[in-house]
Amino acid sequence: MNLSKAIRKNIFQIVSHSSKVIKQDSYIIGGYVRDLLLRKIKSCDLDILTIGEGIRLAKEVAKNIYKYTKVFHPIRMFKRYGTAMLKYDNQTIEFVGSRIESYPNPNSRNPIVKLGTLQDDQNRRDFTINTLAISLNSNNYGELIDPFGGVSDLKNKILKTPLNADITYSDDPLRMLRAIRFATELQFFIEKKSFQSIKKNKNRINILPKERIIEEFNKILLSSKPSIGLLLMKKSGLLSIILPELSVLEGIEEKDGFKHKDNFYHTLQVVDNLSREKCNSLWLKWVGLLHDIGKTQTKKFFPKVGWTFHSHEYVGSQMISNIFKRLKLPKGNILKYVKKMVKNSYRPISLVGNNISDSAIRRLLFDLGNDIEDLIKLSLSDITTGSIEKKKQYENNISFLIKRIKQIENKDCIMNWKSPISGNDIMSAFDINPCKKIGIIKNYIKNSILEGKISNDFSSAYYFMLKKGKELGLKKK
Ligand code: ATP
Ligand code: MG
Hints:
The protein is α+β, with helices and mostly antiparallel strands. The protein has 24 helices and 15 strands.
């Protein structure tokens, strides 16, 4: 196959010319070629393989880009790896020299590297569909070089390793997660033999830095159908190593004719539903993933009543700090958000019916602030019942709640609420220094507003401040 028409962009001609000058053959390789053949050019990443030194080619390319554009494009060199990177025309171009890799240390995925041929370099790649190379050399410019049948695997939607799967996965266990990630993003199948090999090598995942695991895991979550990858992780045994809190949710128990749903499969549906909601917020997806993890600890059976999971959302939210710490996920506001959302995940569903008080809605708005929108998205995604009637009813309940939220927010402005009385107002009214009583008064005013005893304005709040101050033995100045 010759793809010279598809690679008419001038960067390829510049690389081709530069390779000729320094007498190092060069190829486009990996993800760019795969995506080009899939007609899915999403990536602005371009990998150039050269038979020789990557840095040398990058320098020559930068020189020729300058000649062509009169703009200096700096290169970043990674001397330790013999690679270089250049940004040009909204693309990140990576230059790498062809190499043979060996992995003598079983505790490390960092290989020992030697200069090799194009074929050596294709051998070391993870999947046949990622070994594809297009020549940039004048004798066969545009020719596709496909020694492992990658094109046919692309057509058949198959992921398989170019060499022995056991060795490939054991050498660099990140490839197991990459297999599952590509299977999810591209909706491809992992070849049976290869999947067996992932199962066999699952414990090798322990040599990976957590950050690399999470990088792949997050790509799975951000895909349009994360359940594909989550299920493959479950079936391979990788999930119970990475996130056992989730994998133990699998299973249905039945007693005296009472059954509960399978909370693992329910969670997968919730995360898929969030993707369908066009949600590209990674952290809301994490919320969906973790929203039911408290169910294992809170599960109880009551005769004649059935299964209950009381306070599972609270127990679940308490488990999140440890998970985030273990997986080196962010601290600070992101962690706070995920905990808060899981803790409140059940609230909208419990706020249904005509007799929900305004104050319950004001409290929800106060506690959630701007995150109320995400909580509603989660609640809608949490509806996974198979019954069309029930689904309709739950959706109507949420629509009704949204209407009430809008009405109350328009009237009372609670979402970004700031107390109409500040600590300074209290101190100067009673002529006191900072002390506990200020907090008590502020809390009293807040609760009185949320409960609807007073309106959300300065004069009503001032009157209540005086009243509470008096109860606390304070005298107005
Ligand atoms: P994407 O950029 O969409 O994630 P990609 O295939 O381009 O997909 P990169 O991580 O950019 O992935 O890697 C570029 C190429 O390098 C891959 O196509 C593959 O040939 C090779 N590669 C990357 N990581 C590995 C690995 N762990 N083991 C073997 N080959 C790898
Ligand atoms: Mg890439």
